Amino acid sequence: MTADLSRAQHTAPPQRAARLSRGLVLTIAFGAVLQALNASTMAVAMVDIREQFQAGAATSWLISGLYLATAVGSPTAGRLADLFGPRRVFLSSLALTVLASVAAPFSPSLGWLIAFRVLLGIGTCAAYPAGVALLRQEADRLGLPLPAGALSALAIGGQVMIAGGPVIGGVLVQYWGWPAIFLVNLPLGLVGVVLALVWLPRDRRRAPSGESVLGRLDLVGAGLFAAVIAVLMLFLLSLSEQPRWWLLAVWVLLTAGFAAYELRARRPFVDVRVLVRNRPLTGTYLRTALTYVAFYVVFYGFPMWLESARGLDPAQVGLVVLPIALTAMVSVAGAGRLLRRMGHWPVLLAGSVALLVGGLLLTGLHAGSAVVVLVLVAAVLGIPNGFNNIGNQTALYGQADAADAGIASGLYRTSQYVGANIAAAVIELCFAGTASDPGMHRLGTVVAVISAVLLVGALAGLAGGRVRR
């Protein structure tokens, strides 16, 4: 009998190692990329919208309004995911995305369009923090370590859609007009709902509490944060014409008031104490914000220059920037392998070097640059996207507490959108009106300076990690 038992043990099929469901990961990635899609398609629709509504600089709020909404909405959605369940938040985000997208094309004025764009930002921004909370929940349930593959999938989806969005948007705008960049969300949102209902695990029961939903959210803190970002944007945009220095004083007072309020808040919108205690996490947020200033300067500034100074139409602009998507995919795959071998600091180092090269190349472009040169520059600009994104995401995952996964990932997105808002102002300052060669050269210089700062930080982090070993 012992021999039979021994033979049975030897012949029993090996148990398969636990892993995250592919359907789960792909569903989360599908929902998360809707934000990137809606951010990127606007890059080639701005000119048409400005002409239809006969608007000037006010159209920049189509960019700033969305990122201001997402800067506030992402951590709020993360808090809601932590409190009430990430699946509910994920599905709600898709529903709001569909509703805002159906209403936007019927806007009677630019103001209404900006308002619907804000609602769209709130809807699309919630999927990422809810998705990360789902990944963390399932990984902990299965006893899995850092889901590097899942994070790579999110990074690949986001970077490809951000870079490929102008291609999609260029075709939509060229043949169906700017409303098409909103209406395309209708079928995509419905597909996302079906996938979520099939693949996302049901939310666990939450402990009953007499505290109201509003009591669990720091709405005052969120409002103060929005005011801080809005006033900063207004001040930066005023620098291109007549500086309004009094706005800077208002910004300082609002920032101080925001920090003081958050220190006393029971459930703060931004836990200032955690940021002070967890310096590596704070460093990741600051590094991410700075990275995305450079990224969005390229993301919106480069297509605007291609259309206005180089004279390409929206569809052609989309094709010229397509290599950004292709090299982003390749770089994320390479970054994932480097990450598994050496950690996130070498990944961030490589991303900083590539960004520096891309910034320097932008300073050499002019209206007569050959298309092949433009395509090659676009290819170089895609490389740092994958490395920086997955490097910062991995640093965040390891530095944030498991209980705060949702709010931490929401603040990560917020840091990206703070960078986007600053980038919008930088573009206005550098172009000072219509996109031109000197303006592009100034943008390239800004990107090069930012990448140099990031490079120094990555070298310091790498050296510090070796010392601790």
Automatic annotation (TrEMBL):
InterPro entries: MFS, MFS_dom, MFS_trans_sf. The chain crosses the membrane at residues 24-46, 58-77, 89-106, 112-135, 142-163, 175-199, 219-239, 245-263, 284-303, 315-335, 347-380, 443-463. It is found in: Cell membrane. It is a multi-pass membrane protein. Keywords: Cell membrane, Membrane, Transmembrane, Transmembrane helix, Transport. Its main location: membrane. Residues 24-469 form the Major facilitator superfamily (MFS) profile domain. SUPFAM superfamilies: MFS general substrate transporter (SSF103473). The keyword Membrane applies. This is MFS transporter. It comes from Saccharopolyspora erythraea.
